[in-house]
Write a structure and sequence with these properties.
Length: 679
C-alpha cells in the first residue's frame, strides 16, 4: 500500500527532538517528511483532521467505522512497556553514578572498551559542588579526563557538560552556573533527559529480568535498561500531530479554544481512532507526548476505558464547544463532510518513570507505575459512519496529548555503545537458568583479627588472608567487622585473583562500626587458593578504629542446569500471494514431548512493504498475533519474538504460521521460521 489519499509518507523519523530533551530551534523539524502528489494538503488545522493529524501516518490498517470501534470499550497492551528512569541531563544522563558505583556507561567502557576505572576520582555534583555565588566551584576535570570513550561522549552530548564547559550557554552573563531563579543550569533544564529513548526501548524490547556479569563487570537490571535507552537515543518512528513549543498557550477569549494549530494537536478524532485500534483491537502500546505545551514528556500508552458515549445533535455539539448558536457546524469548524456527532468520555492509562535504583522486574507490579488521564471529546462522523475528526472539550482542550508516535526500531545513539553488545546483555538477563545445589559444601576461611587502622592515611592498612585450599567458588559471602568511631571516613576494598570489589565507600556518616555480610558474585568461578587482600583506608582526621574480623564463606560444588531446549524449523521458502485474504500457511510437526515453559519464534520474511502483512502463530486451538500491519513501507521482517501464550501446553503436535498480504502492490516470501521451546 504505497499511496494514501494522495499523500506518500516517507518515514525514517529520528526522535532526537521529541524528548525530555533540549527543544529544537525549528518547530517544523518535529514533522515527518511528506510528499504531496495530488495537490496541497488542507491549509491549517481543521476539526476534521488535516494531514498532520491523519491516523494513516501510523501506516497501520485502521478501522474507522464508529459502530465497530465503540464496541472496544476497553483496551490494554499485551506486551507491557517497562518503567525506567528518564536519566536527567542535569544528573549526567546514563553517566550518573546512581548507586555510588560506576555509572552504566562507565561499566560498559570497563567491560567492552578496555577502560580501567579510578574510583578515587568523583564526578561533578551540581549540588555539592555549587558555591555561594551559584557557580560551579570544582569542575572535576581530573575525573572527566580519565573517562572511557562511551562515558565521555555521553557526558558531553547528553549530560551536564554545559555546567562545566567554561561557556555562558544561556547568555545571562554567568559561566557554569549551577542553579538560578529560572530553574535551569547554565541553559540546561531539569526536565531534559532521555524519555524519548526510554519509551521506544520500553515498547520494543523485553524488560531485563536479572543482573548479569560479562567480562568481569556486573550489570544490574537498571544498568541494562540504561544502556538499551542509550542505544535508542535515536529511533525510527511514525508521528501524528505537531509539537507545541509555546510556554503559554493562547485561547480564544469567547470559546476557550486554543488558537495555535500545533497546540490544538492531537486531533481528538484521530486520538480516538488510534487508541481504539492500537489498544482495543491490536493490543499494542504506542507513545504520546502527554503535555500540550513547551515541555515534552513522552510516555508509553498502556490502555484505556470508555466511560460514556452518546449521540449529539448539531446544536448540542456547538453548545459544548461554546460556538455560535444558529450558525452551521460545518461553517464554524470547516468540516463539510460531517453529518453526525458523538460525545465520548474516556480514561487512558500511561506508564510513568521509575527511579534508577529500582532494580527489579517492574512490570510485575505495573500498577505502581500506571497513571491515568481523563479526556472528553466530540467525534465527527461522515454520513457513512466513519470517524473523520473531532474536538476536545472542557479542560481537556489544554490537557490532551501534544502528539502521538509509533516506534519501529532503534536508529542509533552513543557511537561508542554497540546495540549488539547491549542486546547480548539483555539476552543473558532473560536466559532462564536454575542453580541446583548438589551436595554443596560451604567452606569457611579467616576469623577474628585485630589490625589498627591509621587515621587519615591515604595508603590505609592492608590485611592479607592466605587460603591454601584450591576450590572453585560457586557462591561467596564475606563477613566483615570493623570498630570505628566514624565509618563515613572509611573505604574498604577486597581483592583476590585480579578481582577488586569495594565493600564500603564512605557511607554511613557519623555511625559507629561496620558489622556486615556481603554476598558477592564477583569471585564466582575463581579458585579460593591464594591471598585475599583487604584494604581499609581512613580518609579523614580525628576518628580511629580497627579491623576485628574477616571471614569468607565459600560455596563449592553447585551446578548450573540450563533448561532443556528443543529447536525445530521450516526452511522451505513460500511465496506470499499479493492482495489475498487467505494468504499462506506453513507447518512444523513437533514430535518431541514435554510441557512448554517458554517459546521463542524466529521469522525470516522478505517483503517490499511490511505494513501490508499480518503473521499469526497457531497451535492446539491457540493463536498468537506476531505482526499486524506495522512498519509501513519498511522492507522485510527478520526478528525473534518471545511468547508466554503457550506456556503449560504440550509442545508435541502441529504448529502453523499464517502469513497474509491483504493489500495490493507489493510482494514477498516467507523464507524460513523456527521455534525454540524451553521445557
Amino acid at each position: 500500500m504505497k499511496k494514501l489519499a494522495g499523500i506518500l509518507f516517507v518515514v525514517a523519523l529520528s526522535l532526537a527532538f521529541v524528548a525530555c530533551s533540549e527543544e529544537t530551534s525549528d518547530p517544523t523539524a518535529a514533522q515527518p517528511k511528506t510528499t504531496v502528489e495530488d495537490g496541497k494538503p488542507g491549509a491549517g488545522k481543521e476539526d476534521a483532521w488535516n494531514y498532520t493529524n491523519d491516523p494513516r501516518r501510523f501506516e497501520v490498517a485502521f478501522e474507522y467505522k464508529y459502530d465497530t470501534l465503540k464496541a472496544n470499550t476497553v483496551g490494554r497492551a499485551e506486551q507491557l512497556p517497562w518503567p525506567s528512569d528518564y536519566w536527567a541531563t542535569v544528573e549526567d544522563s546514563t553517566n550518573v553514578r546512581y548507586q555510588d558505583q560506576l555509572s552504566p556507561v562507565e561499566k560498559y567502557d570497563q567491560a567492552f572498551n578496555a577502560w580501567v576505572p579510578n574510583m578515587d576520582l568523583k564526578p561533578l555534583d551540581l549540588s555539592a559542588d555549587c558555591g555561594m555565588n551559584d557557580l560551579v566551584e570544582n569542575r572535576k576535570d581530573d575525573y572527566y579526563a580519565q573517562l572511557g570513550k562511551a562515558a565521555i561522549w555521553q557526558h558531553k552530548n547528553k549530560g551536564n557538560f554545559k555546567a562545566r564547559d567554561g561557556v555562558d550557554n544561556d547568555n545571562d552573563g554567568k559561566i557554569d552556573e549551577c542553579r538560578n531563579d529560572s530553574g535551569d543550569y547554565d541553559g540546561m533544564e531539569s526536565w531534559w533527559g532521555l524519555c524519548h529513548a526510554w519509551v521506544p526501548a520500553a515498547i520494543l524490547e523485553p524488560e531485563p529480568a536479572k543482573s548479569v556479569t560479562v567480562n568481569g563487570v556486573e550489570f544490574t537490571v537498571s544498568d541494562i535498561k540504561a544502556l538499551m535507552i542509550t542505544s535508542y537515543d535515536r529511533s525510527s518512528a511514525l508521528m501524528l500531530g505537531g509539537r507545541c513549543n509555546a510556554k503559554e498557550i493562547v485561547r480564544d477569549k469567547d470559546t476557550g479554544r486554543i488558537t495555535a494549530d500545533e497546540c490544538r494537536d492531537t486531533n481528538a478524532g484521530a486520538f480516538y481512532v488510534v487508541i481504539t485500534n492500537m489498544l482495543g483491537i491490536r493490543k499494542r502500546a504506542f507513545a504520546e507526548d502527554r503535555t500540550a505545551g513547551y515541555q515534552v514528556w513522552n510516555q508509553p500508552v498502556l490502555g484505556y476505558r470508555i466511560l460514556e458515549e452518546r449521540t449529539l445533535t448539531e446544536a448540542e455539539a456547538i453548545t459544548l464547544l461554546k460556538g455560535k448558536a444558529g450558525e452551521a457546524y460545518a461553517k464554524q469548524y470547516n468540516s463539510p463532510e460531517v453529518k453526525s456527532w458523538r460525545y465520548v468520555k474516556m480514561d487512558t492509562d500511561y506508564i510513568t518513570e521509575a527511579s534508577n535504583d529500582n532494580n527489579g522486574v517492574l512490570t510485575r507490579s505495573i500498577e505502581r507505575f500506571t497513571r491515568t488521564d481523563h479526556y472528553e471529546m466530540i467525534l465527527e462522523l461522515k454520513g457513512t459512519g466513519e470517524v473523520v475528526g473531532g474536538e476536545w472539550i472542557g479542560y481537556t482542550q489544554e490537557t490532551h496529548p501534544d502528539f502521538l508516535w509509533l516506534p519501529l526500531r532503534y536508529a542509533g545513539g552513543n557511537p561508542n555503545v554497540s546495540y549488539g553488545q547491549v542486546k547480548q546483555l539483555l539476552d543473558l538477563s532473560l536466559k532462564t537458568e536454575v542453580t541446583e545445589p548438589v551436595d554443596e559444601a560451604v567452606l569457611t576461611f579467616g576469623g577474628d583479627v585485630d589490625v589498627k587502622i591509621p587515621d587519615n592515611k591515604p595508603a590505609g592498612v592492608k590485611h592479607t588472608l592466605t587460603v591454601a585450599d584450591d576450590v572453585v567458588i560457586s557462591s561467596f559471602t564475606a563477613k566483615l567487622a570493623i570498630e570505628h568511631t566514624y565509618i563515613g571516613d572509611l573505604k574498604v576494598v577486597l581483592e583476590h585473583a585480579g578481582v577488586s570489589v569495594t565493600l564500603h565507600d564512605k557511607q554511613g556518616g557519623g555511625n559507629n562500626d561496620i558489622n556486615e555480610s556481603y554476598e558477592l558474585s564477583n569471585f564466582n568461578g575463581k579458585s579460593t587458593k591464594g591471598d585475599w587482600l583487604l584494604t581499609v583506608t581512613d580518609t579523614a582526621a580525628r576518628d580511629t578504629g580497627s579491623i576485628k574480623n574477616l571471614t569468607l564463606h565459600v560455596g563449592a560444588g553447585t551446578t548450573t542446569v540450563t533448561p532443556d531446549l528443543v529447536t525445530v524449523s521450516n526452511t522451505t521458502p513460500v511465496a506470499i500471494p499479493d492482495e489475498d485474504a487467505k494468504g499462506i500457511s506453513s507447518a512444523i510437526a513437533v514430535t518431541d514431548t514435554g510441557t512448554i515453559k517458554g517459546l521463542k519464534l524466529t521469522v525470516d520474511v522478505t517483503h517490499t512493504y511490511i505494513g501490508d502483512v499480518t503473521i499469526s502463530l497457531m497451535h492446539d486451538g491457540q493463536t498468537q498475533a506476531v505482526h499486524t500491519h506495522e512498519g509501513g513501507s519498511a522492507d522485510d521482517i527478520k526478528k525473534s519474538f518471545t511468547y508466554s501464550t503457550f506456556n503449560g501446553s504440550a509442545l508435541k503436535g502441529n504448529w502453523s504460521l499464517a502469513v497474509i498480504d491483504d493489500v495490493g502492490g507489493d510482494t514477498g516470501t516467507l523464507n524460513s521460521w523456527s521455534l525454540e521451546f524451553t521445557r
